[in-house]
Amino acid sequence: MENFEPEIVAFCCHYCAYTAADMAGSKRISYPSNVKIIRVPCTGKVDAIHLMKALEKGADGVYVAGCLEGDCHFKNGNLRAKARVERVQKTLEDLGWETERVAMLNMSAGMGEHFAKTAREFTEKIKTLGPNPVKTVNKAV
Ligand code: FES
């Protein structure tokens, strides 16, 4: 498992996490290239099916990064996203998967360092969990 490089999908809100990632880049604060960013206008646009689809397609971990609670530009999109993440975690639990493969993070646009830190931490966590079980099933078929 020591050579395992996880594939991670991060749904990032345009107004906060995406800008924070951009800031991290411009300040030359590195974060793992394992994290593939998908920019969304608000995390409220990320549905449970998007998270499940990413896992089904082989992502080892998925997270949604939205504005700080109370700061969503669309009022409560980040709270809707949080509820969806929790619903997906419950589904994963029912399937016997690790719930930590899916997470909700919150940050502001100015938190470039925090973006990089959480990307590193999430990547490390997924490394300890190992590959997405879907990959093992697909290999066996
Ligand atoms: Fe950022 Fe809604 S606008 S989470």
Task: Please explain how this structure is put together.
By secondary structure, this protein is of the alpha/beta class. Helices cover 45% and strands 16% of the residues. It has one domain: Rossmann fold, CATH 3.40.50. The chain binds FE2/S2 (inorganic) cluster.
- The helicity comes to 40-55%
Q: Which overall shape is indicated by the principal axes computed on the Cα atoms? A: globular
| Strand fraction | 15-25%
Average pLDDT, all residues: 95
The N- and C-terminal alpha carbons lie at a distance of 21 Å
Radius of gyration: 15 Å
Low-confidence stretches: none
By CATH, the architecture is named 3-Layer(aba) Sandwich
Number of domains: 1
Structural class: alpha/beta
CATH fold title: Rossmann fold
Q: Bound compounds, please?
A: FE2/S2 (inorganic) cluster
Question: Total strand count, please?
Answer: 4
Q: How many separate helices?
A: 5
Largest sheet: 4 strands, parallel
What is the H/E string?
Answer: EHEHEHEHH
**Strand order of the biggest β-sheet:** 2-1-3-4
CATH class: Alpha Beta
SSE blueprint and pairings:
Blueprint: E1 8-13, H1 17-26, E2 35-40, H2 48-56, E3 61-66, H3 77-95, E4 102-106, H4 112-129, H5 133-140
The protein binds FE2/S2 (inorganic) cluster (FES).
The site of FE2/S2 (inorganic) cluster has 13 residues, from α3.
